[in-house]
Amino acid sequence: MVDATALRAAFARRLSAMYGTEVPAYNTLVDVAQEVNREVLARMGADAERLGSIGRVTAERHGAIRVGTPAELAQVARIFGAMGMYPVGYYDLREAAGSSVPVVSTAFRPVDEAELAANPFRVFTSMLVTGDRRFFGADLERRLGEFLGARRLFPPRLLDLADRAEAEGGLDGEAAEEFLTLATRAFELSAEPVSRSWYAELERVSSVAADIGGVASTHVNHLTPRVLDIDALYARMSERGITMIDAIQGPPRWDGPDLLLRQTSFRALAEPRLFREDDGRVVQDDLRVRFGEVEARGIAVTPAGRALYDELSAELDALLAGQQVTAEERNAAGAKLWADRVPRGEAELIAGDLAYFTFHVLDARPGGAAPADLATLLADGWVGARPIVYEDFLPRSAAGIFQSNLTSDGAKDVTAAGADFGPEALAAVLGRPLHDPYELYASIRAASLARVRADLGLTREITLPPAR
């Protein structure tokens, strides 16, 4: 029996090999990331692995795919469910993006602490909201629905194997091989000609809409390795002559704890594709829709920590409004705001309930009766803390990556009413719970505190510091 963990790890490897064949610059990105990671490990030693072992970091990937309909998204959920990957979080890029990005998204990933440690493969998955009148008129929505309804992204055999794997906790060797082959093939770039006029009509609305609804299949939009020093990687990729987007998305580079997620990418490359003209001729041209993203993951923040991040981001926008600044100048301004408002140490993050950590009893702890409040347990040397890795995404950063790789801003009618498609609607489409990331992080923290309580023989619950 090949269990869900092994299926997930094998699928991540196969997808990486396939994508490297399709987008050779991705292989360069992986090589540079691993080069930087080795250097950071040599320089920092064990501290470099505080947010995950080097084995985990080296193997870690997140992918991104795009689908067009609720039915397609429900099928994606079945395929990833077979690999122990479940929908976590809700992202509305219609609101986060300044340009036309008519999608809502979730991320399929493991939710259990041990599964995340074994292989944290995650896939950011976006779905068109074709009923949103800011982007699609009634006639275009109808024709787009007909086009999407006529295509089949995933063969029935793949879906049958996925359902069996999820129900039985895995597949036997022969069935596992068939499942992995079919799943990888489903996300390959199709050689089928693209209708030039149909693609162009959708592209006038949104490059993202054209990439989803202008072709007969889906594909990996990007595949992302993890790096321990994203600023060093950004510089090194540029030195190799690879054009990067203008800035690193997410929190600024500063001298305090790494929080949340920082992302960047090389710009979408011109890839040869076949086009069918209205007169029936098939010609070769190119499209720029796929890019190479890389990420540096930090500490997961609590709702209070996220509120602080959002507040500082808004302050930075207001501070720089109307100014022409470089990416480095923006980072410097952001770092100054963070230095004034964000704690510079992990102990202070815990004390302000701004970030999530797990806790463990120390061998060299004091004698006598242990206290029942976390602050004293930490201060007096009873327990130690280890940060929980941020496993999720930031709508603003995802939109920033998307926008930086669009061929045009598209068209968005801000006077029209948007379609109401929130987390509840997304969960209904998926046919399974949409996990709240904060609840997942809190449950991992709570489980560690329960272990501490048992190890110390405490009769009372351990009290956490109050939120800021």
UniProtKB/TrEMBL annotation:
Pfam family, one: HGLS
Keyword Nucleotide-binding in record: no
Entry keyword annotation includes Iron: yes
CDD domains: VOC_YdcJ_like
InterPro entries from the UniProt entry: HGLS, YdcJ_bac-like
GO MF entries: dioxygenase activity
Required cofactor names: Fe(2+)
Keywords: Dioxygenase, Iron, Oxidoreductase
EC id: 1.13.11.93
Record family assignment: Belongs to the 2-oxoadipate dioxygenase/decarboxylase family.
Protein name: 2-oxoadipate dioxygenase/decarboxylase
Species this chain originates from: Nonomuraea jabiensis
Lineage of source species: Bacteria, Bacillati, Actinomycetota, Actinomycetes, Streptosporangiales
